Amino acid sequence: MMDHKEVIIVGGGPAGLAAAVALRAQNFCVTVVDAAQPPIEKVCGEGLLPETLESLRAIGVKPKSLPGVPFRGIRYIANKTHVEAKFPHGHALGIRRADLHQSLLTAATDAGAEFLWKTRVDGLEGDGIRVAGQLMRAQWIIGADGHASQMRKWAGLVNHSSSLHRFAFRRHFRVKPWTDLLEVHWSARAQAYVTVVGAEEVCVVVMSSDSRLRMHEALNDFPELASRLKGGATIDKERGAVSRNHVLRRVTRERVALLGDASGTVDAITGEGLGLAFQQVRALSDALERGDLSGYEAAHRSLRRKPQFMAKLLLTLGGTPLQQRAMSVLATRPRIFERLLAVHAANGSALEIAGAGLRLGWGLLTA
Prior knowledge:
37% helix, 11 helices, eight-stranded mixed β-sheet, FAD/NAD(P)-binding domain, alpha+beta
């Protein structure tokens, strides 16, 4: 029989490590368990919005300690139409996923968390988890084991609603950056996200509803981007992932709470996956300090509303006849895009985004 733990976190990705940092700051004894060994790689756009950096700061991770490249806003590009806006406050950060993971691991280690790497969890049982045939008991158990979460299944928290899958493919290019903005290129069938992550390195992620659409073919849809990348060496192999809106009816049961992608996902078109996870960390740590997970359940529902609404708005525009009209409206009425970006990148509410969306809708009707 293994020793009783105060908090066990199943999953050592960014969400799990951020939770370890926050809970150690509240003097919980924390053990992180993961079958993998850091750094744990995952396909993402590698951009942290200002709100995400603020959430990290609130957790106890200093954004200034993170490697990466600041960027000051977002530019949308469709055909030859460009729309851009700066963040109203602060800046965002382009950072390699592996670098972010290592920084969070360092922060969790410095905070005093314990780790069991290369350790498979075999199940949830009574008041603990089963590891290597033994029961590891805990007061609280956090499932942060990703979108294919076993903890979610074992806790019986599988009832959900889900959107259609979309597919993302990522690659890094050795090329001199041409912008200090995050760029989103739009075509009829895909989006391409470009984030500067190094002095001579950019991350490119292509997303579409076609699982067979690889980057070399998708770049034909984005001639301006293809021209920028021409002559640049590829740094790594193409990696793929699946994205979708996935909403759970509940994310807690008794002493178990789900966190990050294990607790549901938002389509990556918003760029808010990690930001949402770090906000959940703050809500969960507060709930554990009070000894009551009901507060986390309510906060989780509230936190997911804004990114879900933003995802629906952007997915409605993407790949439809409205796309070019919307871009034209935003280009001629830049204040609408500035407002959308302000409430998207900051701690705006779903109601505020709805208001900006209505202004865009009126612009479409009167264009």
